[in-house]
Amino acid sequence: MTTKMSKQQNTFGPLIVDVAVPVGSYYLFKDAFGMGTFAALAWSSVVPAGRTAWCAVKERRANGLAALILFVNAVSLLLSFVSGDPRLMLAKDSGVSSTIGIGILVSVALGRPMMTAGFKPFLVRGEAAREAAWARLAGGSAPGSAAFRRSERVFSVVWGVVLLVECVARVVGAYTVPVDTMVWLGSVVLAGAMTLAFVVSRGIAAEPMARLLTAEVKAAEEAAKREVAVAA
Description:
The chain has helices at 2-32, 37-44, 46-57, 64-79, 86-93, 95-109, 116-124, 128-139, 145-176, 179-231. By secondary structure, the protein is mostly helical.
């Protein structure tokens, strides 16, 4: 039980940092701490800004998800100067998750599922054998490649769809539910949507990918043993 929970935490750790922390912290700062929209957006941008800079400078690659959230926050900072009624402000808040959801779905359509960067490191676990197995599965040269790449796309699709549905639900709520109620209910909807995305994407995509990855590593090890036996 403990081992299983630890693996799940490792698998979804980057997703928590890239998605849950910046989006959730915005609502925490705004609703729980009473910060203004501008201040809440600014403070919630710290993590994605740090992640984007770290990947660019240290790892020499782009963290697409963190960069997208940073971009959305920057645009929202500009839009926060636009005045309006309370319901319009509540509806505008949902634009963060909708833009992220659209970005994720577009990345799938382009053949580069954005969410992959979030969970690949924890499926590979820094092991050369698993990294090589991932490359074969993702590149199409392994027996389970088709299923692996399908699950990779499904993982991102789940997140994209859930975030878009969450956005629609909060926009509808912004104009149908009392404002005082929607202020806290919006955060509940967001938390529920992210929990749903974690559970569903894990069950139908991440776990099958982990099994395929393990099987490919074992197959490669057995093939190497056979070669040694033949050579001997």
